[in-house]
Amino acid sequence: MKILRKSAVLAVALTTPMASVMAQDKVEATVQADFVSSYIWRGQDLGDVSLQPTLGVAYKGFSLTAWGNVGLSDNDDTKEFDLTLGYSTGGFNIGITDYWFNSPNDRYFSYAAHETSHVFEANIGYDFGPVAVQWYTNFAGNDGTNSDGDRAYSSYFEVSAPFSLAGCDWTATVGAVPYATSFYADAGGFAVTNVSVRASKDIRITKSFSIPLFAGVTANPSTEKAYLVCGFTLRP
Known about the structure:
- Residues 1-23 form the signal peptide.
- The protein has 236 residues and is mainly beta.
- It has strands at residues 28-36, 39-41, 44-47, 50-59, 62-71, 80-89, 92-101, 118-127, 132-141, 155-165, 168-177, 191-204, 210-220, 225-234.
- Residues 3-23 have low confidence and may be disordered.
């Protein structure tokens, strides 16, 4: 789960631990680490100050990405390890993500029904240029339940729009849960859970080195909460 993404991220939120890549003729690698003041994912507060490393490879539209989260301020903060297999061509993208958390089961290789901490999610989306649309659905693992107590196949969709203003790169996002699930803050039905805006700017340190700095505001109308997040990225 990527901050202000999948957003995170800020992914995430600001996004989705999934990298969108155009078709390449050679293997490309991603190595980076985000430091964030708090971990906000799709309008949910998942932790305080965190380190979020990313390692990925991509080739001809296919990508395999590992993304993690470790809280730096509290031992009880969320610990997370996600693997995403994705494919993109033009504006179209599709993928599958295996999310793992250290709760309710801190054993990574535990896949037993009703015990596993893994959540498996499929996503599909299209980037039209001025606007991008993404849909995400959990299809296995530690999913939430609906009002009847059955697996909810919890889903989330969002619309995001990038723009430039005052020398910064901005992204505005609106995301919602389409139906009842306990996975997204016990949503009882359709609920807007993420209204966010994020700005980023490269801060030049030397002639050859700069640090991307970002900040964003996220509101969750469903829970009546709001968050201000900032951070920076380190990469080669």
